[in-house]
Each structure stands twice: as C-alpha cells, then as structure tokens.
Amino acid sequence: GENVEQHPSTLSVQEGDSAVIKCTYSDSASNYFPWYKQELGKGPQLIIDIRSNVGEKKDQRIAVTLNKTAKHFSLHITETQPEDSAVYFCAAREGNNDMRFGAGTRLTVKP
Amino acid sequence: NAGVMQNPRHLVRRRGQEARLRCSPMKGHSHVYWYRQLPEEGLKFMVYLQKENIIDESGMPKERFSAEFPKEGPSILRIQQVVRGDSAAYFCASSSGQIYGYTFGSGTRLTVV
C-alpha cells in the first residue's frame, strides 16, 4: 500500500518568511496529492491539491509542486502570518482508493 | 450544505463500555472513511465504506472495532469494551468517489476513564 513520509515534523518561522513542507510517497500509481490544515480542536480542512498531470499549482500565498519522477511533493507558504500556525498534513491517493496521510508538520509563525 | 456531521463531539466512556460514533456524509457523497488521531500524531486510516459495503478495513483492529454504513442513516463506528488506549479523536471524511477530495467532519473526541 501507499506510504507517505512528511518532513519536518515541526517548523517555526518568523512572520513574513516562507515555509516549506516536503512529502514523499511510495506508490507510483498515486495521482492525487492534497494538503490539509488542521487547527486546534478542529477537523482537517483542504487548502490545496494537485493532480499528477500538473507540476505546480498556486493559490494566493500557497503553492504546491509535484515531482513524479522523484515521487515527492511540497507545500510552499509565502509571507506567512500568525493565522497560518496549525498542523499541516500531506496525503496521496490512487484513483478511488483510500487516502494515506503523512504524519503532519506543526507550523508556528512567530509575530 | 451542512458538510460532514459527526456526533457526538465529545464522548466519555468507562472501561468496558461501548462507544458508538456517528457520521453523516455530505449530501451526494456515498463514500465514507474513518480515521483515528492520537494526541500530537497524524491521521491513521481505519476503514473505508460505501453504502452497505465495507471496501477496505485494513486499518481497523480485528477485535472490538466494527463499522457500518447502512442504506439509510449515518455511518457508525462501534468500539466494544473500550480500553484507555482507545482514547483519541476519530474523524470521518466523505467523498463522492468521482471527485478526489475528502471533506472531513469536526471529529469525535473519545475519552475512556
């Protein structure tokens, strides 16, 4: 089955700096890669996703890149703000199979 | 569209009791997934169901845990004879199956005392 690894487990940045979180996956057939943000006491919320036929996707301050050959994908947050502080999860999925998640990255943005 | 509804939000059970967690998927979604999250840890897949069928239960413990998604009504995750190690947040997600994304509920936080 799919195995997703995520790094780093914790990340602390100064407000205004960029944050990068990286994930690798094992199943070359995976074709959908979402990123979720989980705030304290809440369920994960989808923030951006990318499909395997695209190498990069951007939505305002958030971007995701995908390298299918190397089987890794990354989340980039620019101009970080304190409200970006949360736990971020990457995931990978092949077709209609169930999603497998990384272990999460706790991002802290210091004002 | 009310999103994925989970109840109860918080559940306290004594050791040996049964816990029943409910999940109503988003309107139009027929695929339900259950995940467990321990404090400071990631989301661990438990079970994937479609209406009246268990598609993948590879992540669910063989004993004491069961799940169903009947033709009518919510999906139920049932934990019999709970132990302290069952204390966790249990999240349900749903999808349409034809759209890749999952929508998560707010979770049920189970505490076993």
Walk me through this protein's architecture.
- The complex is a heterodimer of chains A (111) and B (113).
- Chain A has 111 residues and is mainly β.
- Chain A is built from no helices and eleven strands.
- Chain A has strands at 4-7, 10-14, 19-25, 32-38, 45-51, 56-59, 62-67, 72-77, 86-92, 100-101, 105-110.
- In chain A, strands 2, 4, 5, 9, 10 and 11 form a six-stranded mixed β-sheet that branches. In chain A, strands 1-3-8-7-6 form a five-stranded antiparallel β-sheet, with no helix packed on it.
- The termini of chain A are far apart.
- The mean pLDDT of chain B is 92.
- Chain B has 113 residues and is an all-beta fold.
- Chain B has strands at 5-7, 10-13, 19-24, 31-37, 43-50, 53-56, 65-68, 75-79, 88-95, 103-104, 108-112.
- Classes of the chains: A mainly beta (111), B mainly beta (113).
Give the overall pLDDT of chain A as a whole number: 93
Overall geometry of chain B comes to: globular
The total count of strands of chain B amounts to 11
Regarding quaternary structure, what we see is: heterodimer
Main beta sheet strand tally, sense and closure of chain A: 6 strands, mixed
Describe the largest sheet of chain B: 7 strands, mixed
Instruction: Provide the helix percentage of chain B.
Output: under 10%
Structural classification of chain B = mainly beta
Number of helical segments with 4 or more residues of chain B: 0
Low-confidence stretches of chain B: none
Mean pLDDT of chain B: 92
Radius of gyration of chain B: 13 Å
For the terminal residues of chain A, how far apart are their CA atoms? Answer: 41 Å
Give the strand content of chain B.
Answer: over 45%
Q: Which two protein chains have the largest interface (Cβ within 8 Å of the partner's Cβ), and how many residues from each? A: A-B, 23 and 23 residues
Number of strands of chain A: 11
Percent helix of chain A: under 10%
Give the amount of beta strand of chain A, in percent: over 45%
The structure class of chain A reads mainly beta
SSE order of chain A, one letter for each helix or strand: EEEEEEEEEEE
Low-confidence stretches of chain A: none
